[in-house]
Amino acid sequence: MKNLLFGLIMFSGVFASAAGTFKLTSNLKAGQPIPADYYGNQFGCTAKGESPELEWSNIPEGTKSFGITLYDQDAPTGSGFWHYVVFDIPADVHKIDLGALAKGAIPKGAVESNTDAGKPGFFGPCPPVGRKHTYIYTVHALKVDKLGVPPTSTAAYVGFNMWGNSLGKASFTVTAGPRK
Predict the structure, then answer these.
(1) Contact 52, 27 (CB under 8 A)
(2) Is residue 152's pLDDT more than 60?
(3) Which H or E run includes 164?
(4) Does domain 21-176 have CATH number 3.40.630.10?
(5) Of 79, 40, 49, 54, residue with least CA distance to 138
């Protein structure tokens, strides 16, 4: 049984690589610190809360919609912190312009859901003084047109539903801080 499962995983990987790897690019550079203008205006930060340009390519076959998340894996909560959640992005959208998420300028039909701040909308990074945090931007390719969850859902609930309807995801990681 173990060999069959391993074979199926390897076989499915061949199809994924034949079509190309689902990829997310940005004006932010993966693995690099983000500029201070991208910090939020909360938790002691007084920056612009700029949101990055995001563009994705090599979309998995059968994709009917997308979701985007921004997650701080180093937040001192014991389970990280969801800074942004949007879903039901139409399948023909493959780019979000610079600043659009921070302005709430999401694609028609898309739904912003609650962050861990308890409200929807883009919530820019703001690492605590003296600490560096790692932030993960992810685009989720989904096999459904509509995720079917209320806009008031928690980030965890949306994430659970995205995971259950996932055809693939593409991510990049940036850092912020330490602030002085």
Answers:
(1) yes
(2) yes
(3) helix 155-164
(4) no
(5) 54
